[in-house]
């Protein structure tokens, strides 16, 4: 009986062993997926286009990583959208047969190491573009040509904003006048530069600063690029020197492109003359008055005394009120004495 029971246990164990060993067959598939993992990865950072509003550009940083344990050369493939181009990338070359695509990098990366590539992306739109977003993409690639999946990064064109222009011109002396320009960023964010233009009639020429070579103002005036970042609430002040011949002249100064700005005080007309009196160089749109003017304490003291001396005296004086009060008091006492005498009688 015991032998039969032991034989049954052995047979059951033999039947159960293949069931336990079955899942071990899936192990080679897991090792295959590990071997297929990419050897080089790449990620691109967000791009903000700025500086020249007609053709804005901005930096693009691409981080290339080697997640492996051994050293390997790290390449990356870059794709850009329409109206965007790569203007600076020393280790990038175009991919033949694939428009707007570049192969970059190639430096050796240690196991677990990374390298940041700094490129420059510029807008190629024929006309200024504002408030637009587009997407580019990058993918890591190793020396054998194995390419990782593409990851997207965003490209931001400049947004519309508001800038306030103020300008005054001094008198023309010896054929030269100086225009003091003040541009205030009244928007809610920093801007990466703007364009200032001077439309000049015959007999007026911009002597300084140097005009931009964009060709947009040839024959009509001068364009001056201000490429520095202007923070929100900050004011950019600079002088423009004009050479003037032939008597009184009128020039127009403005911020461009005009469709970038949401406010209206972006253009002024200045009159240039040698008199230097009131109105010489005054803007046609005067600056707002009121909150910007703060009277000094001395001025307030000098005006307050004459104003008080000129006020007429009206109404009843204080001595009159005193006499009336004394009379009422005497009347009250007399009535009290009379009441007591009547009561006694």
Automatic annotation (TrEMBL):
<feature type="region of interest" description="Disordered">
    <location>
        <begin position="272"/>
        <end position="313"/>
    </location>
</feature>
<keyword id="KW-1133">Transmembrane helix</keyword>
<dbReference type="Pfam" id="PF00746">
    <property type="entry name" value="Gram_pos_anchor"/>
</dbReference>
<keyword id="KW-0572">Peptidoglycan-anchor</keyword>
<feature type="transmembrane region" description="Helical">
    <location>
        <begin position="320"/>
        <end position="338"/>
    </location>
</feature>
<feature type="domain" description="Gram-positive cocci surface proteins LPxTG">
    <location>
        <begin position="311"/>
        <end position="345"/>
    </location>
</feature>
<keyword id="KW-0472">Membrane</keyword>
<dbReference type="InterPro" id="IPR019931">
    <property type="entry name" value="LPXTG_anchor"/>
</dbReference>
<feature type="compositionally biased region" description="Low complexity">
    <location>
        <begin position="291"/>
        <end position="309"/>
    </location>
</feature>
<keyword id="KW-0964">Secreted</keyword>
<keyword id="KW-0812">Transmembrane</keyword>
<feature type="signal peptide">
    <location>
        <begin position="1"/>
        <end position="26"/>
    </location>
</feature>
<keyword id="KW-0732">Signal</keyword>
<protein>
    <submittedName>
        <fullName>LPXTG-motif cell wall-anchored protein</fullName>
    </submittedName>
</protein>
<keyword id="KW-0134">Cell wall</keyword>
